[in-house]
């Protein structure tokens, strides 16, 4: 049994990860920033100061962690209106992550698993699934902050001996999902016509159950030390195929209108939403061969099983 500290343990991925770790027999402390609930069995540790300021001094004397899995982050914000978005992202995703790593090392942790994002590498695959060795070319403040955090954490690990494991998921979905994926489900459930019928470019996704299975392995497997892994379901879908699959599990046919992709791009430019359109129509596939070869990992859930679970949750909740 290991003792794992999970930052952001009350969030979408954090709750699922905590449950998987507990089921595997590990002790879990949830490091959260507000007085919110974690799942049963998780020791809750509230540290409300922004960007984990003062974390090393506040670390409880009886929390001796073997590993920290760092999920907490400032996530991607569509149409960010901040005067300097990169500075805000850096404060949380770079400096905040380093504070957690420093505190973890000072209190005896051997490993730090950083949940980054495929956006730290690229926004589109250029015709070839993205590998861990590809040179990073992030395009927005969120992606740049994640890439900078990866670099800073690797340097910290090299200086101190803390094992740094980096995991880059694409879009994560599953019961409890929010943001754009939830909006897509709502639109399909509501019978709203979607101009996505002609979109053929494929994008990788990862079901939350598959992601947390990989994260558990990264937290405890000695072979994961100082590695970087891309993780995905193993079957890529176009947004039109995704919508059709969601509709099937909702028992509601997705109403897809075959608007040419060129028209969608033109509309995006006119409306100032070119980036949002690009995320729908450009390919973004990831290569998971390194994770499979290094840890012998295979996703325990198929895409269809993940979408079925997500649709069942939505029908039971809304």
UniProtKB/TrEMBL annotation:
<feature type="region of interest" description="Disordered">
    <location>
        <begin position="126"/>
        <end position="146"/>
    </location>
</feature>
<dbReference type="InterPro" id="IPR036291">
    <property type="entry name" value="NAD(P)-bd_dom_sf"/>
</dbReference>
<dbReference type="InterPro" id="IPR050177">
    <property type="entry name" value="Lipid_A_modif_metabolic_enz"/>
</dbReference>
<dbReference type="InterPro" id="IPR001509">
    <property type="entry name" value="Epimerase_deHydtase"/>
</dbReference>
<protein>
    <submittedName>
        <fullName>NAD-dependent dehydratase</fullName>
    </submittedName>
</protein>
<feature type="domain" description="NAD-dependent epimerase/dehydratase">
    <location>
        <begin position="4"/>
        <end position="224"/>
    </location>
</feature>
<dbReference type="Pfam" id="PF01370">
    <property type="entry name" value="Epimerase"/>
</dbReference>
């Amino acid at each position: 049994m290991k003792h794992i500290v999970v930052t952001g343990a009350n969030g979408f991925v954090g709750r699922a990860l905590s449950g998987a770790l507990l089921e595997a027999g590990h002790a879990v402390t949830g490091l959260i920033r507000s007085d919110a609930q974690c799942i049963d069995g998780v020791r809750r540790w509230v540290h409300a100061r922004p960007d984990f300021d003062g974390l090393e001094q506040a670390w409880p004397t009886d929390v001796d962690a073997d590993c920290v899995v760092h999920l907490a982050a400032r996530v991607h914000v569509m149409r960010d209106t901040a005067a300097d978005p990169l500075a805000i992202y850096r404060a949380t995703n770079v400096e905040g992550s380093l504070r957690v790593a420093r505190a973890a090392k000072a209190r005896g942790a051997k490993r730090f698993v950083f949940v980054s994002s495929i956006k730290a590498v690229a926004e589109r695959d250029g015709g070839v699934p993205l590998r861990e060795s590809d040179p990073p070319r992030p395009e927005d403040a969120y992606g740049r902050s994640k890439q900078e955090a990866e670099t800073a954490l690797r340097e910290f690990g090299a200086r101190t001996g803390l094992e740094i494991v980096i995991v880059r998921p694409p879009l994560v979905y599953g019961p409890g999902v929010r943001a754009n994926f939830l909006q897509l489900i709502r639109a399909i459930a509501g019978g709203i016509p979607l101009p996505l019928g002609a979109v053929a470019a494929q994008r990788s996704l990862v079901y939350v159950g598959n992601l947390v299975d990989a994260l558990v392995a990264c937290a405890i497997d000695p072979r994961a030390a100082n590695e970087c892994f891309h993780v995905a379901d193993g079957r890529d879908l176009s947004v039109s195929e995704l919508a059709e699959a969601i509709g099937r599990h909702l028992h509601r046919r997705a109403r897809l209108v075959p608007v040419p992709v060129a028209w969608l791009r033109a509309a995006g430019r006119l409306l100032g939403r070119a980036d949002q359109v690009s995320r729908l129509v450009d390919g973004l596939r990831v290569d998971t061969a390194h994770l499979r070869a290094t840890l012998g990992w295979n996703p325990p859930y198929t895409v269809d099983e993940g979408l079925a679970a997500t649709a069942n949750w939505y029908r039971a909740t809304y």
